[in-house]
Amino acid sequence: MKRLFFPGASLALALAVATVGMPAVAQSPAPRLTQQALANAAYPLDVVTGGPVQLKDGKFEDPQNQVSVTLTNPQASGDLNGDGAPDAAVTLAVTTGASGVRSYIAAVLNDGGTAKPVSSALLGDRIRMRTISIARNGEIAASYLDRRFDQPMSARPTIPVTRRFKLNESNALFASAPLANADLNNTTYPLPAAPGGNARFSLGQYRDPAGGLTARILPTPRANGDLDGDGSPDSAVVMTVSGEGEGTLFYLCAVLNRLYKPQATDCVLFGDRVAVTGLAITDGVVTLRFLDRKPEEPMTARPSLPTTSDYLLADGKLISAAGETNIVTYACAEGKTMKVTYGKNAAVVEFDGAMQVLLQRPVASGVRYANDTWELRGKGDEATLADAKSGQVLAGSCVARAPAGTPPAEPSLTGVLTGTVTYRPRIALPPNAVIEVQLADIAIADAPAKIIASQTITAGGAQVPIPFELKYDPAAIQPRGRYSVAARITEDGKLTWISTKIITVLAPGAPSSGVEIVVEQVPSGQASAEGRTVEYDCAGGKTVKVVYGADSAEVTFDGQTWTLPQVPSASGVRYDDGTWEWRSKGPNGFLVDVQNNVVVANDCRERASDGAPGQPVNRAVMTGTVTYLQRVALPPNAIIEVQLADVSKQDVAATVIASQTIQANGAQVPIPFELVYDPAQIDQRMEYAVSARITVDGKLTWISTTRNRVLTRGAPATGIEIVVKPVP
Fewest CB within 10 A of the end CB: N or C in the chain? Predict the structure, then answer.
């Protein structure tokens, strides 16, 4: 720095000259907080009810509740919030009616020389404090001696521990360093098979004293990163469990960092006898990498198939992002910015220095994500963030922006699936025939298929076999997914041919070229639905009115009317607009709220022409229960769905004969069911089975995985037990 000399000038003149044309000199920094100010401040502690603890000369006494608080050493001075004033971090010793002395650290802001305590955190009980320091970035480091987790409180503290804290935008302390391995290895994890659904781990191990269940927290890999938006680095670990049957089950667990007190909030099953290769937390998304087996390989095979799964933590639960995460940065009004990581059914929103995980919610148009704090609404490239309680817009007029020089992202349609559509009868295909081919994700058998690619071809005089070429995005294909192709042919909008078999493609061993789709002629009774108006009587006194069109149906239910497009169906007819779905076969049908995954009208039967309620000619009843073996409570809003189906043909989708939808409403397993069916539909030569699934808030949580044969070949019709298993 250059020095300025003013010979023969007075000091006053020199100062005057030196400051001409220069910025005003900053005010003198605020003085340090005095010990008197610290000793007579009100501290936010959780040891008394009704507000903060007001110290007087460094002490607080509450004889009635046997609480004593003392301001003690060590203490530190430094800027905690970046305003330039020397704040403070102090130690408080708290005794209660119980034995022991608990040590707290408190952050105190300097408000013009007035001590303003804003937050505190418990360090430990009967520890030995050593030092407190405040770094230039405002980070507090508290060092002390503690005991091992397995030592009694009477033991002398000898283990060095350092905890680091910072203040967030709300002036609340948060942990600025990850949980230690000792914290992760010696805490309680949710484990459904353990008594009470929780397991207390010691040195990373758990053994059920009443059974053969054992579990272990793997020492590696582990990952750290903020999962819940409080600023603290949370953790993700892998748990292995044996003793629940054959094999070793692998769980992914999320552990929140509550001021260095670990809180294992959820564990999800992701594999059996797999090999974990990587674990990371980025922008609130947990990415898990492991080696698994191919679908056709036995469990004895060595895992070799690379697999990646993404998860988000929402409402304390890990939910699958299904590899569909998409990060979008928005430019909003008033120069604000917002970053959103979109998952399959949740979104991580980063705004104004805070982060929240929002669950997807139903909405009539666009997308909506919300929790108790924020609500995000979006449509196309636009989005708005609002306060979930007041509705106040926090970030409005937000428009998605791409990195400089980057064109808008488009699907990479580099995958090609080729084949032909044909039929066996010697019937000419009219020139106006339209052939539609679709590639779909059918991984979840009882959920609507997700269309990945489609092609529409006008015959124009060409005859079968008709070649097709489906272009798709390879990124949409998951290594362990299940995909199929289907085709249909219409003439003047009337469905005439349709494929009825599941044709698997793209999976290991399945073709990606030369695929032959054989379509079958639509029965005249099914094709003649066009132009009919049918009223259906459903369970619970409900009614559904359907006006069938050439390629759509107008469905009226509960005072509302929707026009649903016809979509391919392996059995009967199906109309689905992504919000509502109507299925019918012969005189029977049912209506589904697709967004909430709820059957709103079931056991619907076509009303007779004389207006009499539709009823089956004969009536038979099948009874049983749905249960699971894990010790987990069934939420009151759980929905249990039970189906009776014809499963005789292995390569054709099962034909549903009867179904029942049950609201849990607080009931616990076993849940009784009663399926009413028409015995005339039962062929003693065929094979029938019942299945069940449980959904919570539209999310599939439990499903039956074994075939429960019923009715024929000596199989039961009553006392049937359907055991469902948790969905990974």
Answer: N
